[in-house]
Known about the structure:
- Chain A is an all-alpha fold.
- Chain A contains twelve helices and two strands.
- In chain A, strands 1-2 form a two-stranded antiparallel ribbon.
- By secondary structure, chain B is of the alpha/beta class.
- Chain B has a domain at 4-87 and 158-236: Rossmann fold.
- Chain B has a six-stranded mixed sheet with strand order 6-7-8-3-9-10, sandwiched between helices. A four-stranded antiparallel sheet of chain B has the order 2-1-4-5, covered by helices on one side.
- In chain B, helix 3 (97-104) packs parallel to helix 6 (142-153) and helix 6 (142-153) runs parallel beside helix 7 (172-187).
- The A-B interface holds A 162, 165-166, 168-169, 172-173, 175-183 and B 52, 54, 73-75, 78-79, 83-84, 86, 88-95, 99, 102-104, 106-107, 109, 152.
- Adenosine-5'-diphosphate binds at residues 15, 20, 38, 40-46 of chain B.
- Adenosine-5'-diphosphate (ADP) is lined by residues 15, 20, 38, 40-46 of chain B.
Amino acid sequence: MQFIQILAFGLLLGGVYALLASGVTLIFGVLDVVNVAQGAFLVFSALFTWQIWDLFGFEPLLLIPLNGLLMGLLGWAIYRGMLVRVAPQGPGMTVLLMFGIALILEGILNLWFGNKFKSVTPSYYLSSFNFGDIVLPMPQLISGILAFITLGLIYAYLRFSWAGRALRASAQNKEGAALVGISQRSAASLAFAIGAATAGVGGVLLAIMYPIFPATQYDWISRLLGIVVLGGFGSIPGAITGAMILGVTEAFANTYLPQWSSLFFYGAILLILLFRPQGLMGTKTREDVVA
Amino acid sequence: MSDIVLTMTGVEAGYGGGLVLQGMDLALDRGTITCIVGPNGAGKSTVFRVISGLLKARSGSVKLGEREINGLDPAEILRAGIAQVPQNRALFPEMSIRDNLLLGGYAIRRDKALLKKRTAMVEEMIPLIKERASEHAGNLSGGQRRMVEIGRALMLDPSLVLMDEPSLGLDPKSVAKVAELIRGMAAEGRTVLLVEQNVRLGMHLATHGIVMEQGQVRLTGDAKDIADNPEVASMYLGKASGT
Lengths: 291, 243
Ligand SMILES: Nc1ncnc2c1ncn2[C@@H]1O[C@H](COP(=O)(O)OP(=O)(O)O)[C@@H](O)[C@H]1O
Ligand SMILES: [Mg+2]
């Protein structure tokens, strides 16, 4: 029973990782930009959630659509205002730009919130869900389920809408997309907006699961990049698979060897990359990402 | 109305610093098949990129009928009636053949009835597209991929079709199928501009021929005359050009 409980916990955690990492890998797939600011977007949304919850005290989960929308708009504006100009200079420059944006966001958050942990503690914060012998913490359960629902919505949008088709087309063949009349710029703006929106939604989910402070962005971005590299840069199914593997690995490590949990997280990545250097489902090698 | 579909006059274009096209001229009559031949690097594909708006000409003019199209973006040129099947792989490998075809109609996506009609038209012309609709385009052979690329280009019912080395890397059977499609297009009143490395095939298909060298037209004429021209023959026997 404990095995199933840990597995379920790991899959829920994996769902949250999957949502966050999909945003990074989607942006990379369309724009060839490694969005190292995703961790900062995430923490920004989480602290914003804390602020609103602290001021008004209403259910933080209600902020999901708002935060998704706000971060989506911010992403869109960053792309249109800055990234589009820097993009022709290649991945090296865009990483620098996104890193700069991450530092600025972190600075703003530090000024506003100080360097202290903030915890959002709604009524269900300490409650759990019992299903027979399986006991799951309520925040993790809710976050995991909402992450899967959000992923499902994104999937349906990418698969069945014209804008989603255009976005995927642009990721798979830029010249081919241009030849059927898809503008790279609108596909890229949309990809960046959706990618950032996942951080907006994910920030709310993290806020009810973990205490947050500005510098936790480093921890989050390293996890997300780890997942994306493991899945294969640019591959959403890869990111989801990678996220599940790492969520489960982390859940088991946390139960049996809690001090070693990060080691297991990154160890699993290293081990898999030894056998599949392009990642689980990647087509581009890691050199392409850097070059 | 004039019968000239497309004219290029004195077009100069290039990538970065250098000029690839150095005063390119071209005129295509309605319903004709014109074949451009010339050594590698002569700028044949660049002509196509300029016509379809992927590359802007620095000077000179490109007219579709009376309308200047240089400077329009690729989507507008597509809507004006010019479609291109490029030299390199143009499909979306991880999408189904059906979705690839549908994306050919991206510019008319809001007109569902028209989209449906065009899909049916193309499926009838190229049965493969219907037979393997749900397969990923990445799994197709070179010849099949070409057929889907051609089908996709026809989704907007273009009046001018550009085909860059359509026979490249195909087996003889597929080449014959592609040739048949090209003839069919011209018979329907479309104008076709193609580039062929295989000069014999190209000139056999075409009504008009153009020999390009170093970004300029070296020779134009009826396809037959070009094919019989001793200079062209010597060029493709591997002797240095221009001697
Ligand atoms: N994307 C590009 N960037 C820079 N140079 C290019 C590009 N595409 C083609 N060229 C150069 O332009 C010249 C003409 O190329 P192209 O039009 O493809 O010739 P062709 O199709 O006749 O073989 C070549 O010297 C080639 O190296
Ligand atoms: Mg070429």
